[in-house]
């Protein structure tokens, strides 16, 4: 019996990939005033950014209600007696908390393991995808838990930001606060450390920022899979993915977009690279 | 009293006090001895301020032997050193002190040997000693002193006379050793300063008090019209931190070293000098009451002075600390101009020491900044070629670990700062910052303070002159045109980012116009115009 894999929509896993690998994604919600949209379900990233530009108020985001988590678990428990739930970093979202709480409210008996991925965006997504692939090949839940724990230390991500205002507004700025208020026009490169936003570098031009992302990826000696993510700049993402492909011809590179909920926190023109691999 | 056979500690004190007064009379003239006709690092002022600190510390020395006084002077020179000449002067006092160690008084021969030691220490302190500078002057003067003492007379006055004569010849010769001096038609300012100090010593030893009072030092370079200008006295040397607390403890069996160690736990910028019967204490503390009650049992307190330092400044620092992630490594940057200071703090500099081309901070200014930041590891960005040596001295005065990234321009400083990586350790950061600083080109445009011919350019006073990486390459009537002229020497097709910092005598409209022109000519460039607010320099431009 295949272990069911569950995650939240902050992992930015493309829906076709999720479908193919049988990953259940519980969407968060985006609120523009009184309009509510389910992340990536009722609202695409393109639609989100169009609305963002027109909207007077900044959008807010919320995790799904507890009932949605419970229902999702119970439904999966009809098909399997083991569920692995991989959550967004609990320092960034309440998703993990709800995922844990929902286990106790389930009606069906089923073993559910909830793991804090300590990541977000495709760094989280790649960890989930790896678990789903292994589950499909018949790995048991203990094996999957061990694999996931190991992959948490093998994932990494860097993102070039156009502005840090959205991160600050949304309270996800973390230690990247140090990069706020720059009097020069710089492109901050942020990543995640110990589950929190971390300031890695500032580049003086967009071109150098993209170089930084490229060299970040090439600093890995081996890469299982990687992802190039963008918000509103598909051409840049394509060009970067092409560069990376020539450096890593055998590595699968997902070309993804940040989800609307992520978009609400990172703003436009974000470009990132997520990697699951080994350094040195 | 005119000692001839030997000098003791009191003589040493007084002769250098006289030398400082003598130097003061010509410090403005020495300031004017610039190679480049730019508002410069004021060598005369820097040496004078270094001498003042030297003399002040010598007054505090309770040990009246030459050994004790020289030690105090060496310390005073070290903390008061400003600019490259000030730092080298402090090395000279360091050498004198080493040679005089353990002696009550010294003879003419011993003085000559001490000067030779001073020369050796000054050379040893520099990784790349340049001839035709103050170094040549101390070396040649000390050689003459040793030769005179060995072959002519051991009489102090005659030894010093020989020293001064040799120093004068050596100064006159500096343009033949250093081509830039020749081209500018000036002697080396630091050399002139040292000669003046030695001459002041000689006047004192000869008992020529009238001379000292009424005459003025002789400037070795006389063919150059000297435009005397007011020395830029740098006020407020203190970096504020809580209360600046000063007092003298008198008592028995006092132990200044032990006291210093104890007080270092109670505040910052601790200076403790004295002996077992009297100790002067200077400390920046948030709780002066705590310090005072700690020392009261040790003896009686005198000259108590507690000042509340600028509260805004403290708030500013606190705000900086809050903003910073808890990093292990702090960055102290030397910057002048409000806009530039904002740029540096906005990019994560922990502490700004005001200073630059016309205002060189002392070692003590930098030391206090280093002590004020909460990190144990500190990177210093001097951002000026005349501040690098001063920054290098800080390590010897603090227990914190210091790395100096020897940035010599503002653009280099910004590039280095941007390369700072919050994840990396200090060593890696210093390497990355050095690499980043090397990748940037710096353009500076200022007004000539006098007419001269240099680098094949005919320069009239008040004309705009442009530097590329420190080399004078362009002159013109309008700063805007000179900026363009300098930039035309750079392959702009290969450049990505240009940042224009305009000074306090340039309008934003003028600067924007320069930026627009660049934008039109080179659409691939990212041009940014930033208010720098720096004095004297119409434009500082970073080319990356």
The total number of structural domains of chain B is 4
Q: CATH topology of the largest domain in chain A, what is it called?
A: Rossmann fold
The helix content of chain B is 40-55%
What is the CATH C-level name of the largest domain in chain B?
Mainly Alpha
Distance N terminus to C terminus of chain A? 37 Å
Q: So, the CATH homologous superfamily of the largest domain in chain B?
A: DhaL domain
Topology-level CATH name of the largest domain in chain B:
Serine Threonine Protein Phosphatase 5, Tetratricopeptide repeat
What is the annotated CATH architecture of the largest domain in chain B?
A: Alpha Horseshoe
Structure class of chain B = alpha+beta
Number of separate helices of chain A: 10
* Strand element count of chain B: 18
Task: Give the strand order, joined by hyphens, for the main sheet of chain A.
Answer: 10-9-8-13-11-12
Spatial order of the strands forming the largest sheet of chain B: 15-14-11-18-16-17
């Amino acid at each position: 019996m295949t272990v069911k894999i569950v995650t939240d929509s902050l992992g930015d896993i493309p829906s076709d990939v999720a479908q193919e690998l049988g990953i259940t994604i519980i969407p968060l919600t985006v609120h523009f005033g009184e309009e509510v949209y389910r992340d990536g379900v009722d609202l695409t990233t393109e639609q989100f950014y169009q609305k963002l530009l027109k909207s007077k108020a900044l959008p807010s985001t919320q995790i799904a209600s507890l009932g949605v988590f419970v229902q999702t678990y119970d439904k999966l428990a009809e098909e399997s007696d083991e569920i692995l739930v991989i959550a967004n970093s609990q320092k960034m979202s309440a998703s993990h908390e709800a995922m844990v709480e929902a286990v106790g409210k389930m009606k069906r008996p089923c073993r559910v393991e909830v793991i804090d991925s300590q990541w977000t965006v495709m760094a989280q997504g790649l960890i989930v995808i790896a678990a789903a692939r292994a589950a499909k090949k018949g790995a048991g839940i203990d094996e999957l838990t061990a694999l996931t724990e190991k992959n948490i230390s093998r994932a990494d991500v860097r993102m070039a930001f156009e502005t840090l205002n959205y991160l600050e507004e949304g309270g996800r700025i973390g230690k990247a606060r140090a990069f706020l208020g720059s009097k020069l026009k710089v492109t901050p490169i942020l990543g995640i450390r110990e589950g929190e936003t971390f300031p890695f570098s500032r580049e003086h031009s967009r071109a150098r920022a993209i170089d930084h992302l490229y060299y970040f990826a090439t600093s890995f000696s081996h890469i299982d899979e990687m992802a190039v993510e963008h918000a509103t700049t598909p051409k840049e993402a394509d060009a970067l993915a092409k560069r990376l492909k020539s450096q890593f011809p055998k590595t699968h590179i997902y070309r993804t977009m940040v989800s609307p909920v992520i978009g609400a926190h990172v703003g436009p023109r974000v470009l990132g690279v997520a990697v699951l691999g080994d350094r040195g | 009293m005119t000692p001839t056979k030997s000098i003791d500690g009191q003589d040493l004190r007084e002769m250098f006090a006289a030398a400082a007064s003598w130097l003061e009379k010509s410090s403005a003239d020495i300031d004017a001895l610039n190679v480049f006709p730019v508002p410069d690092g004021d060598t005369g002022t820097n040496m004078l301020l270094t001498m003042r600190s030297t003399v002040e510390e010598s007054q505090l020395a309770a040990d009246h032997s030459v050994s004790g006084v020289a030690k105090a002077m060496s310390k005073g020179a070290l903390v008061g050193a400003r600019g490259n000449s000030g730092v080298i002067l402090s090395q000279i006092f360091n050498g004198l002190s080493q040679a005089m160690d353990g002696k009550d008084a010294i003879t003419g021969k011993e003085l000559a040997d001490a000067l030779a030691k001073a020369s050796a220490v000054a050379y040893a302190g520099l990784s790349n000693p340049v001839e035709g500078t103050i170094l040549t002057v101390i070396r040649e003067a000390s050689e003459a002193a040793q030769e005179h003492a060995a072959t002519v007379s051991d009489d102090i006055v005659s030894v010093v006379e020989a020293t001064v004569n040799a120093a004068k010849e050596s100064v006159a010769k500096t343009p033949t050793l250093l081509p830039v001096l020749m081209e500018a038609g000036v002697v080396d300012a630091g050399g002139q300063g040292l000669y003046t100090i030695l001459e002041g010593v000689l006047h004192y030893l000869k008992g020529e008090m009238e001379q000292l009072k009424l005459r003025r030092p002789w400037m070795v370079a006389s063919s150059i019209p000297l435009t005397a200008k007011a020395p830029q006295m740098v006020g407020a040397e203190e970096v504020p931190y809580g209360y600046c607390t000063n007092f003298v403890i008198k008592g028995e069996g006092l132990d200044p070293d032990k006291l210093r160690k104890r007080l270092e736990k109670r505040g910052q910028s601790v200076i403790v000098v004295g002996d077992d019967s009297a100790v002067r204490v200077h400390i920046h503390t948030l709780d002066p009451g705590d310090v005072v009650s700690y020392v009261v049992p040790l003896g009686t307190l005198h000259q108590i002075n507690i000042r509340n330092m600028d509260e805004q400044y403290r708030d500013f620092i606190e705000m900086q600390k809050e903003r910073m992630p808890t990093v292990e490594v702090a960055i102290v940057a030397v910057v002048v101009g409000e806009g530039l200071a904002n740029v540096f703090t906005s990019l994560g500099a922990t502490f700004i020491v005001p200073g630059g081309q016309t205002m060189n901070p002392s070692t003590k200014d930098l030391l206090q900044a280093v002590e004020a930041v909460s990190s144990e590891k500190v990177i210093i960005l001097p951002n000026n070629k005349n501040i690098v040596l001063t920054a290098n001295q800080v390590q010897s005065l603090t227990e914190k670990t210091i790395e100096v990234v020897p940035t010599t321009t503002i653009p280099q400083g910004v590039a280095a700062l941007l390369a700072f990586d919050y994840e990396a350790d200090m060593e890696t950061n210093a390497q990355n910052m050095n690499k980043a600083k090397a990748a940037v080109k710096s353009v500076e445009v200022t007004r000539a303070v006098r007419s001269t011919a240099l680098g094949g350019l005919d320069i009239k006073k008040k004309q705009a002159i442009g530097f590329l990486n420190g080399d004078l390459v362009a002159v013109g009537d309008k700063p805007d045109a000179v900026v363009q002229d300098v930039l035309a020497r750079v392959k702009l097709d290969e450049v990505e980012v240009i940042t224009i910092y305009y000074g306090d005598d340039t309008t934003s409209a003028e600067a924007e116009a320069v930026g627009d022109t660049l934008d039109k000519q080179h659409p691939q460039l990212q041009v940014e115009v930033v208010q720098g607010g720096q004095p004297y320099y119409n434009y500082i431009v970073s080319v990356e």
